[in-house]
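Exercise 7 asks you to align residues with tokens for two separate proteins.
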Amino acid sequence: MPSRINSLRSQCVLFDVDGTLLDSRARMHLAQGECATRYRLGPSHVIREAQGHRTIDTLRQLAPAGADAEADAQLVMRREHEDAEGIVEAPDAARLLRDLPGDRWAVVTSEPRRATC
């Protein structure tokens, strides 16, 4: 069956950072895996639950009784942003941005400002 291509007309585009312009899964999985170990949970479970959610929301949901989810979220986020090793450009992201008019796109994220500057 032939695929159908839909077109969309818009005045501007908003891009998320993680998973759209950058692939930072390796860094995120490392940090989330370390937290999973502290919580005595399977890393794959924590990584799966964290996908598409803010770190603090995931840890509030998964934290065992007595755990400080706020402090743990800060630790995970610091660990994710210690360095850029493992963070790579998403395929064709730079080309896409070059092809768009510069005044017609912006980057949005739920990441703290210090993590994106």
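Second protein for Exercise 7:
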Amino acid sequence: MTDDRDDAELLTAGTLAPYLVRRGLADQGAEIGAREMGGGVSNVVLAATARDGRIVVKQALARLRVRDEWLADRTRALREADALRIAGRLVPGSVPAVLDVDPEACAIAIERAPEGWRNWKDDLLAGHADPATATRLGELLAAWHVGTAGDPEVARELADGGAFEQLRVDPYYRTASTRRPELAAAFSAVIARMAETRTCLVHGDYSPKNVLVGDGVWVLDFEVAHYGDSAFDVAFMLNHLLLKRIHVPTAGAALERCAHEFMAAYRAGLPASLQPDEAHVVAHLGCLMVSRVDGKSPAEYLDDAGRTVARATGSRLLVAPVDTVAEAIERVRAAVPA
């Protein structure tokens, strides 16, 4: 079920200044710079400067900006604010601060990164793959997973997994499964296990596009965060690194190292009781590789050859699985030599 209230009254760069004044984030009559930020399909994202501070306002869309019809509950913005606060409490300085939550407009205001910070996805697509960033992302993910594992309060706060179903499971796994019926049984098995697993806070979109790097590392976009299957986050980041390994073979060795360093740092941050079942991570990885070709949100940077490799490699991970992430990385290397 989706909530499309206020869809006709979405914020714009022109209406942001009076909105910030109404929300107490800016002073009446003050000069407020505002502009629309690109890059998102599920939110209106606006940047502003007010009271000498840098602000980003995110307002959830009911219908995503993609070719296929894709609807989602706009109240996911409220869960994002909850998850950001939890993540920031566990690792201060790892996420932007939440400045305001507007339930009526399904919008949140958060701290904006300092000038000069970069999006890690842009770095990777340009062939600049820094393993130190990958290591830090493995450390952060482990800290969030460990810090929320078995926490009944966080489990209650993030119990609503509706946005994750609407924005990940349905458009990725179920859509790809329908379009690739020969893989339906494998997809169904992963979906079933994921639905039964409630371990910790799961970001749900842990990818380079949601990472800013500068004098530190910030992770953004917790809009599908929920209490669930930790393996999904691990596989999601690995999938993005390996898809870029397919797309930028000249940076193949560096991207493979990022994948290995991310996994090593994640595992190093976990106690023995929370160590991942790597075969399950690989199963997610296979589903995600296929989904980013045959789901509702295909990876926009892959060309026809890249899509063919990603589909074939992901399919093989599902029908002829391996037990470790290292073996999965090797399969990608074999498919696209550097």
